[in-house]
Design a protein that fits this description.
The chain is an all-beta fold. The chain has strands at residues 2-5, 10-15, 21-23, 26-32, 35-43, 50-57, 62-63, 68-75, 81-85, 88-94, 97-108, 113-121, 124-126.
């Protein structure tokens, strides 16, 4: 069994029923014949609720957006940072390994068009 860790510039949070967002620092990944079984357990620091999820990902995309929020921290103008919330976060198997990605929309100021961007969510896999 291996561990998947999300680090900067991406941050993932489990949504708790009390509206608190609980950081997901690590997900257990168990290889199966047709994909991976991803599982994690976190405890909400606000209400104390234990949250556990087990998700089976295959080559078909699986949407995590109902219970996970993803953010990307990007450099902005001058010495500031921009935090972008992904509109969706999905996972699937690509080249035999878990592959996570998300989409977000933003306004292009030079032509006033709303553009949808796609970002791969990087992670570190440990054994």
């Amino acid at each position: 069994m291996s561990h998947i860790k999300f680090e900067n510039p991406y941050q993932l949070y489990e949504k708790c029923a009390c509206t608190m967002q609980v950081p997901l620092k690590e997900i257990l990944a168990k290889k199966e014949k047709d994909g991976y079984l991803l599982s994690y357990s976190v405890t909400c620091p606000s209400c104390g609720k234990a949250i556990s999820q087990s998700l089976h990902i295959t080559e078909k995309p699986l949407d995590f957006s109902d219970h996970v929020n993803a953010f990307k921290i990007m450099p902005a103008l001058k010495d500031e940072l921009a935090v972008v919330k992904m509109d969706s976060i999905k996972g699937r198997i690509k080249d035999g390994e878990p592959y996570f990605y998300g989409t977000y929309k933003h306004l292009r100021f030079f032509d006033n068009v709303i553009q949808e961007d796609f970002h791969k969510i990087d992670y570190m896999k440990t054994w």
